[in-house]
Every structure is written in structure tokens, then in C-alpha cells.
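Subject: two folds for Thursday's group meeting

Dear M.,

Sorry for the delay on this. The cluster queue was jammed most of the week, so I only got both jobs back this morning. I'm pasting them in the order they finished. Each block is the input sequence followed by the predicted C-alpha cells. Could you check whether the formatting survives your parser before we put anything on slides? The first protein is the one we discussed after the seminar.
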Amino acid sequence: MYGWWSSIIIGLLLLIVAIFLSHETKGLLLGESASPKTIAIIAAILKKTENVIDMGLPQIMHFGPNSVLLIVDVDLKNSLNLEEADKTMDSLRHEIKQMEPKITRVFIQTITKINH
């Protein structure tokens, strides 16, 4: 008499677990976007740096709950020599990692915008 009720209850529990797991893994499969707060922090850091003229939209990839990769394009002043540009990029990497500890890897690509 109770056999078919227990089967229905087990089936419902399995359905609930499957829905929960699919919701949680969707972000890992499709990729999660960065929070607006994180993007605002990154943009503020880049905009306040005097050697940065412009920046592209930050691209973020999550490798886990506490491991995030950031890739961002920056346009540096043309008057910088190689050493100054390297110091600026190292400083940016360090400051971004300090302000957002979940960002464990930072790749900054330099771009040159040519105004015609």
C-alpha cells in the first residue's frame, strides 16, 4: 500500500535535485557574466590611471567560485616607453587583484586606436 507513494516521493526528490543541479551548472556551461559591481571597480581602476587613455569592455571567465580570469584591452598613452608601459600594466594587475580577490588571473592587452 505504501510502496507506490514512496516511489512517487523518491521521483519528486530526484526531480528537485535535477532541477537544482541544472540551474547551478548552467552558469558554468554557458559562462557567467561579471557582476555590475565588479565591472564598475575594474573601470574605475582603469579610468583613474593617468597612462590609460581608453579601455575595452572587460571579458571575464569563471573557472570556479574563487577563480576568475579577466581580459581587458587598454589604450595607453603613445608617449610611454616600454618600461613605463610595463610598470603601468603591472600596477593595474596588482590593483585589480587587490580590489577583487576572486580575480586570480589578469591579462591586459594593449591596443592602439588610430583617429582619422
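Second protein, same layout:
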Amino acid sequence: MRLFTEAILPAAALSEAAQASEDLRRELGATADAVRWVRPEAVHLTLRFLGEIDEQRTPAIRAAMTQAASATGPISLQVSSPGVFGGRRPRVLWVGLDGELDRLNRLAERLDEALTDAGFEPRQGAFRPHVTLGRVRRGASRSELAQIARTVANAPPLEAETVVTGIGLVQSQLTPTGANYRRLAVLEL
């Protein structure tokens, strides 16, 4: 099973992210085709990507999630400005988050610690909270990359207030039209 954990965002925050995605598409015009956009129903806030995991290990993942969630209360966040990973050669378009990021980071750390204690590999790289809107296609021209970087840099900030009250374990099934997600577990903070 291809699995990841997520901080569950309320519908209003997901709607704001979807609107930001639509606004960027419209602003990019024909260059929007250089981006593989995330479908609105697939937008999420990943806490930890686990990869291909044997189904028999899901109870250990749920136990780690329970441990992390029980030590964390609701987290107030704001969906904020769009951005890119990759700078002048953007690879991923996203919207960022503001608010109680220290608490969100601590939740991710607790989850990482509990998963590592359960025998999973430690996280590779730092936790960088964001909501992915799209990925730039291979073969995008320099002018397309430059337009994407400019458009995202000039996008207005968002101001959606939201509260994360739970975390989820999600199965991801890759298809030619994008990933399909199925929540296997939800734990309240």
C-alpha cells in the first residue's frame, strides 16, 4: 500500500486552496498547460509520506499517529501566499501556511519520532508545511518556467483561517489521471 499521513484541513481551507489554483491557472493562460494541476478533491497537507508499506504494518502506523495526536490539541492556521519549490526553475506550485506553525511542526516531529520508534525509516529532509497545487511538467521551456515563477511571485496572499483538528492515514493509488486517495484512519487532536 502506498501511504502517507496528513493534517486534515477543513473544507473551507481546501476550497481556498482550490480557488488559488484556479486563479493561477487563469493568470498563466496557455502556460498553465506546463503544469500538472492537483485536482481540488486531492488537495491535502502531508505530514509524512511513508511510501510502499506492507498492509500488516498499518496498526503500527495508527499507534504512532495515536501517540502523536494525543499530545497535540487543535492547531490554528491560515492558508497564505502561493509559492514554488525550485526558485527560477519551479518544480512544485503550492500555497503556504501561517499561524501556529510551531505546533504543526511539533506534531510532525512527534509523529516522526513515534514512527521511527515503531521501526520506520526516519524522515528524509525537513518538514516544510505546504499544500501542493501542481507540479511543473518535464520539458517545460525556460520562458514557461520564468512565467510560472513570476506569476506565483506576484499572486496575492490568501487569508483563509482554519483549524486542524485531526490527522489521517491515507492510501494513495496512482493512475494515469492522477492519484486517488482513500482515508484509512482519522484521529482527533
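Two things I noticed about the second structure. The two ends are 25 Å apart (CA to CA). The longest strand covers residues 75-85.

Cheers,
T.
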